[in-house]
Amino acid sequence: MVGVNIFRPGAVCAALLLVAVALVGGPAHAQGDVERGEILGNTCLGCHGIPGYRNAYPTFRVPKLGGQHAESLYLALVEYAERRRSHATMYAQAATLSDQDKRDISAWFAALGEPRTGRPATGARIERGREASAVCAACHGQNGISMNPEWPSLAGQHESYLLHTLRQYKSGERQNAIMAGQVMMLSDEELRDLAAFYAAQVGLFTPTPRRRN
Ligand code: HEC
Ligand code: HEC
Question: Which ligand has the nearest atom to the CA of 6?
């Protein structure tokens, strides 16, 4: 099915139009106080600051937040608090934060650094994923760095986390109208290809705690 999608210029145009509208309209800014965010967000590094740290069950790596857009981080926290994304620990984290707390922590994570650059990994599955990603590029960027700060960058994110989220959009466990429509027609094999492609790109990173002497 994905082959049909890639070569359907209408779909790509519609998505590009969405990007244009969103950019002209201006994103809802998640303005936050970086210093306050650091104080509030330090505990988050207990999981998000440990490279390769795993979620126990189901097993996947805890997402990289370094290099992610503040707006996208903020929206994710709102979605956990509203249970549109299901994850017990992240619900517990997000539900106790005020709206301003969420904005401040998001601003702090975003201030930890720009997406990394470098040479992406290659391979057969990654190539298949690249081809399948043509329909995703209008929103997530050609190499997984999204142009609209409300849409998450995917470049360099952990493969197991990407696959986990794609399957959740498909099962409806994570509720998002846009992404549900994107994955609906894709096979599990195609989801694997896409996760491999984005994980092989360079961008997001695990922020490690800074030591102050
Ligand atoms: C016990 C470990 C743990 C702690 C502590 C934790 N997280 Fe998470 N976080 C996770 C896991 C696991 C996920 C992936 C959940 C899922 O499957 O949706 C996640 C997902 C996220 C996401 C979504 C990322 C994306 O790419 O969509 C954000 C944003 C986030 N966490 C922010 C925070 C913030 C802010 C804090 C501190 C207030 C925090 N987390 C504390 C484990 C943790
Ligand atoms: C019209 C814009 C649009 C298109 C096209 C699109 N996405 Fe998304 N994507 C989004 C938005 C918005 C979100 C955030 C949704 C949420 O909060 O759960 C998202 C979230 C994701 C996530 C979760 C990231 C994270 O950090 O939690 C993955 C993975 C993803 N998209 C992959 C894809 C793939 C693969 C395709 C192509 C098959 C695609 N997307 C096409 C807009 C888009």
Answer: 2
The pLDDT tens digits of the residues spanning 74-122 come to 999 999 999 999 999 999 999 999 999 999 999 999 999 999 999 999 9
Domain that holds residue 188: 2-7+32-200
Asked if residue 207 is part of any domain, the answer here is: no
Residue 210 domain-assigned (yes or no) = no
The predicted model scores a pTM of 0.89
The total of structural domains in the chain comes to 1
Question: CB of 83 closer than 6 A to ligand 1?
Answer: no
Helices (H), 34-187: 34-41, 45-48, 70-81, 88-95, 99-111, 124-132, 137-140, 159-171, 177-183
Q: Hey, which of 71, 78, 136 would you mutate to test ligand 2's pocket, going by the most ligand atoms within 8 Å of its Cβ? A: 136
- Using the mean position of ligand 1's atoms as its centre, give its distance from the Cα of residue 109 in Å: 12
